Amino acid sequence: MLKNKPFRLTLIVTIAFILLVGIALLSFTYLNKSANANQATAMSAKDMAATQYTMDKITTNLQGASFVQIGLTLQADSKDARDELEQRKVQVKDTVNEILHTTTKVDLDKPDGHDKLKKEIMNSVNKFMTKGRVIDVYITEIVVQ
């Protein structure tokens, strides 16, 4: 059956065509989902303002002999999540303090130091959120000595 050259050629072309169509469909599906995800996360300035939780300024010791004074705003994904942050403000502040107490001045001075701090704060706060999540953390001011 496979010794017939025209049949083998037809089989190979058919399999190649099916593979190409499959790859094209998978690519289209993946790209379409990515575009929808980007549209879903894009908020208007008004929506962003309505879902931001601004913390009181924190002054605390860093690990070692340094201290930090920092202002933070947490961007929630919904108004319910923002309200939950307000209700959990003591827990949020305690979480940020714990993170800062294990952070050194050298950690913050690294090129990616602020990004790592923001990501750690976001991940830690999201662990206890039940009505939504924090999608970004903004450092509004920071002084390290």
TrEMBL record:
GO terms for biological process: bacterial-type flagellum-dependent swarming motility; chemotaxis. It is a single-pass membrane protein. It is found in: Cell membrane. It holds the Pfam family FliL. The chain crosses the membrane at residues 7-31. Keywords: Cell membrane, Chemotaxis, Flagellar rotation, Membrane, Transmembrane, Transmembrane helix. One of its GO terms (cellular component) is bacterial-type flagellum basal body. PANTHER family: FLAGELLAR PROTEIN FLIL (PTHR35091:SF2). Controls the rotational direction of flagella during chemotaxis. Belongs to the FliL family. This is Flagellar protein FliL. It comes from Collibacillus ludicampi.
